[in-house]
Amino acid sequence: MSTTSSHPSVISMINQDHSKFKSLWKEYNGPNMNGEMKQKLAWALIREIAMHSSAEEEVMYPEVRKRLGDEAADHLLGMEGHQKLKDLLYEVNNMTIEKNGEAAFTAKLDEAMKVLMHHIDDEEGKFWPRFEALPGVDADLLSHLGSKFESAKAHAVTRPHPWAPNKPPLNVVANMATAPLDGLADMWRFAGNPPQV
Ligand SMILES: [Fe+2]
């Protein structure tokens, strides 16, 4: 009997993050948002997506690789998934509304969000149902992975790093080395208070 069985399933945690991304993006495009508010929201969104992706790569995708195979894991990590998303978010992260103008900034972020929405549909519509239906995948395993996912987010990078390794064990080492630097870089962005979104 697992001691972590009371922890929420990794899949419900991942999907909860997805809902958060969707609502932040809706808020970004909503009424009464000025440039400064959009910039802050975009930074929060980039931070949340970076942490989520890093934890998925550490905890969930190795399980996908082990149980659903290389093709599934490589698809989720590749140019229809995380790699493309990181490339685009890296570009967004190097832009600001003040420097590049709101239209150009939003267009680039929109490009990234389209990739993210496609990736979310892939995970929720295709890969998670397949994963959950596998023999050996039960509530205990999903709960155990949920607890690992939560810990992984706590030491995750908070910015996109398209050139960093995305598979264990090197991604874990790279995250450990990079996350504190991201934290320092975030200090000025969030005035020492990373957003709780
Ligand atoms: Fe993902």
UniProtKB/TrEMBL annotation:
Q: Identify the Gene3D superfamilies for this entry.
A: nmb1532 protein domain like (1.20.120.520)
What superkingdom does the record give? Eukaryota
> Any idea where the Hemerythrin-like domain is?
11-130
Which InterPro entries does the annotation name? Hemerythrin-like (IPR012312)
Pfam (any one)? Hemerythrin
| Name recorded for this polypeptide | Hemerythrin-like domain-containing protein
The lineage, from the top, is:
Eukaryota, Viridiplantae, Chlorophyta, core chlorophytes, Chlorophyceae
